[in-house]
Amino acid sequence: MTQGDKSAYTDKQKRQAAHIEESEKEKGRSAEDAERIAWATVNKQDGGGKKSGSGRAGSSRPGHH
Where is this region: Disordered (predicted)? Predict the structure, then answer.
């Protein structure tokens, strides 16, 4: 793969990206564009390589008791 460290992704996410990449190549995209689109799609669906929540700590909001 050309960009970034994909080790944080699950095997399922890696397979999904590979499938999307192949699909994009069949549509006539370059290998580089296909890979970029594939990983962008996986990130959009799953929030990236880390499955550690949405970035918020708990459900409490400042100022709301």
Answer: 1-65
The answer to whether 37 touches 24, Cβ cutoff 8 Å, is yes
pTM of the model: 0.66
Distances (CA, A) of 20 to 23, 26, 28, 62, 64: 5, 10, 13, 40, 43
Give the model confidence (pLDDT) of 14-56 as tens digits: 999 999 999 999 999 999 999 999 999 999 987 766 555 545 5
Instruction: Give the separation between CA 5 and CA 55, rounded to whole angstroms.
Output: 21
Which tokens is 5 given?
């460290």
What gap in Å lies between CA 9 and CA 17, rounded to an integer? 10
Contact 32, 21 (CB under 8 A): no
